[in-house]
Amino acid sequence: MTARQADHPIDALFLNRHSPRAFTTEEIPQAELLTLMEAARWAPSASNTQPARLAWGRRGEAEFQTIAGLLVPGNRIWAERAAALVVVASQAEKEGAALTWHAFDAGAAWMSLALQAHLRGWVAHAMGGFDKEAAVQALHLPAGHALHCVVAIGRQGPAETLPEHQRPREMPNSRRPLSEVAGHGRFL
Ligand SMILES: Cc1cc2nc3c(=O)[nH]c(=O)nc-3n(C[C@H](O)[C@H](O)[C@H](O)COP(=O)(O)O)c2cc1C
């Protein structure tokens, strides 16, 4: 495995967090999952509106099966082996007024969860590939809310547990250089 290389020095946390698909069979205790979601709760948000909303289930629970059933087949095949699935949504409007930054804030919440997971030895893998229409009903999404991702959480397992075509993607991927991302006083 080629180690990820940073162009500029950053904490190993940011390089080592990644999104594997292979999990061990280890279960996640409910208290531990609550700790990961607690990190999401403390993410910053516009005017502290805290629009992020989560719906979760642990493997073995009916709630987990409901969420797993929403995933597209290419995600379901590996993600139903996860220890937990967490759906990330956000409140998009409040009392008729748009919460303009709800999606940005939900992104911060997911990342807080992912980094807290990494710090505690878990992996968290976000998936946009799920049936959002079906999720509205199945998860009782309130009106004025938007769905974003399902996050699979577990302990990383051996790639051999994956279907053969998914094994090569188990390696951490790379990033475009910072010089293509950050412009001095203007966008590139
Ligand atoms: C919004 C979002 C949607 C994603 N959807 C999927 C998905 O449906 N299936 C999947 O296997 N990975 C999905 N991913 C994972 C990305 O492919 C992955 O985060 C990206 O390649 C960077 O790799 P890393 O997380 O290992 O650093 C998604 C990630 C994000 C943030």
From TrEMBL:
Keywords: Oxidoreductase. It holds the Pfam family Nitroreductase. Residues 162-173 have a biased composition (Basic and acidic residues). GO terms for molecular function: oxidoreductase activity. The keyword Oxidoreductase applies. Residues 16-58, 76-155 form the Nitroreductase domain. CDD domains: TdsD-like (cd02138). Transmembrane segments: none annotated. This is Nitroreductase domain-containing protein.
